[in-house]
Q: What sequence folds into this?
């Protein structure tokens, strides 16, 4: 029981990695699950289902590139990534609601950036845990920090249902 309390208290030190990771994933999955389907451009050269797949592909490319480049590009302040992901959500929510972005290419760039932020936050958080946490606690810390993105994905997925339905209800889609 004492060991459990010690680990629980130690978990507080990991919040500086966990909170930004959680926030990035909540907003990332609110975008991916709640908004992608609603981001449609009738002036694009492909239909809505192709546009949706394009967004998914660009998001995954961004995640792959940013997770693969951790040795080249490190970010110390993870909260900046969280803030930028919230900004992405606000922009894409407004686009889904008001359709003010004139070209799909602009939205594609935002979606790619969304993936870069998500993968970058993930990679940098775990890189920092591996290098900043005392070696005897790295394995435990990695396991605990990984809960943040799992919870973020779950919470974002749940919230996205409400957001998607709210937007569709307003437009009677």
A:
């Amino acid at each position: 029981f004492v060991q459990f309390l010690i680990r629980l208290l130690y978990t507080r030190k990991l919040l500086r990695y966990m909170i930004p990771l959680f926030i990035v994933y909540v907003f990332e999955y609110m975008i991916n699950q709640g908004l992608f389907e609603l981001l449609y451009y009738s002036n694009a050269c492909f239909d809505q289902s192709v546009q949706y797949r394009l967004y998914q592909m660009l998001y995954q490319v961004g995640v792959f590139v940013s997770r693969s480049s951790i040795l080249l590009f490190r970010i110390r302040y993870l909260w900046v990534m969280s803030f930028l992901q919230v900004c992405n959500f606000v922009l894409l929510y407004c686009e889904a609601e008001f359709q003010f972005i004139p070209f799909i290419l602009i939205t594609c760039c935002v979606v790619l950036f969304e993936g870069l932020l998500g993968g970058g936050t993930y990679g940098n958080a775990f890189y920092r845990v591996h290098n900043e946490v005392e070696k005897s606690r790295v394995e435990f810390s990695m396991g605990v920090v990984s809960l943040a993105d799992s919870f973020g994905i779950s919470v974002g997925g749940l919230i996205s249902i409400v957001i998607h339905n709210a937007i569709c209800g307003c437009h009677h889609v």
